Amino acid sequence: MKFPFKESIFATIGNWPPEWKKINLAQGFPNFPYPDLLKNYALETLNTPSLHQYAPTRGMLSLREAIVGYVSSFYSVSICPHKGIIVTCGATQAIALALNILLEEGDEVLAFAPFYDSYHAQILFSKARLNTLELSWENDFSFTKAELEKALTPKTKILLLNTPHNPTGKVFTKKELDLIAQVTAKHPCVILSDEVYEFLTYNKNRPHVSVASHPDLKNKTLTISSLGKTFGATGWKIGWIYGPEALWPILEQISLKLQYDCFSVTSFIQEAAAKALGDLENYLPSFQSHYLSLRDFFIPQLQKLHKCTARAVNPDGSYFTLIPVPKSFKPKSFKNDQQFCEELAKKTGIASIPTSSFYLSNPKEFSFRLCFAKDKILLEKALAQLKLFLEKKSLP
Ligand SMILES: Cc1ncc(COP(=O)(O)O)c(C=O)c1O
Description:
Layout: H1 9-14, E1 23-24, H2 36-46, H3 61-75, E2 85-89, H4 90-102, E3 108-113, H5 118-125, E4 129-134, H6 145-151, E5 156-162, H7 174-184, E6 190-194, E7 221-226, H8 227-230, E8 238-242, H9 248-261, H10 267-278, H11 280-303, E9 320-324, H12 337-348, E10 350-351, E11 353-354, E12 367-371, H13 376-392
Parallel strand pairs: 1-10, 3-4, 3-5, 5-6, 6-7
Antiparallel strand pairs: 2-8, 7-8, 9-12, 11-12
Helix pairs in contact: 2-10, 3-10, 4-5, 4-9, 11-13
This protein binds pyridoxal-5'-phosphate (PLP).
């Protein structure tokens, strides 16, 4: 069987010439050093001889217990460390396994668009279909009960949520989860909730609400998260998926598949991750204030640059902003966001993501995504180049 999906936008940008991405705000990872805390634990576990052989397929018990511990203390959600959780190679593998196990040919998945692009490829791989409910600028990236009712069909096997949301920076509120609970109350779908940005929120009035903590959703929700975003170390590729007793049979199937996929995830890294998660409460305040300072440095300056950047999203969560592509841009008008991003990269060295890659078909409005998990020197360079580009319409 041929893989039913073309190269991802991240692979496309990976193949761009280096001078197109001197100021790389495309992919979601920091350009500053990862925390010493993580490094010190990794050195300690690297030097522990017993931590270099296969880990159990479901993950090292120490890591499963550390995840269960933080989920209990932050969200008051109780998970069984033996049957209720599995460690994976990043959130991406957890998403892939859950979709592969749950879906059969002809099934449907409902997700909000824009959506993280790996979802669609995995859904197609299972010969299932992705339907989307588009979140739009004019509705503040929210949705109504009627829209959700219309989008959910008898074939919907999974409602795929992502909060905080990539790329809009939206954090789903308790009220929105109430709506989802009402609409899915009598529907047999499973909720798959991708919460990799759970600790990256900026607005006290819009805190992250764990979907698994919602009283009417907790029994049908599988939650996915990852170490990479919270500890600024996306290359560690430690992810996990957990769920309530009612969904243990699905988790059992996922662990059976994982046995034959990669068998288990790197053992000494899992142990270091477990130790780091044990320090989460002490670590989070400085981590969160650092990202808040980057958002508050970058977004207000960005919004002042041009008519189009005035509408740049000031996100409540994640480390992305969305900016509308200027409609008419002389001497050249752009047919789509991909063309705009290529021109921007060619002229300024700023790499960004055309957000049409996060939709099934062209969105109502073209936009591009910038990641601000970068040091202030790089963000300043990006602002200066973007200003010139937008003012002069073209650089030499
Ligand atoms: C919404 C979302 N889910 C999952 C992932 C992938 O996480 P991981 O690197 O742990 O596989 C990302 C990475 O950017 C993401 O933005």
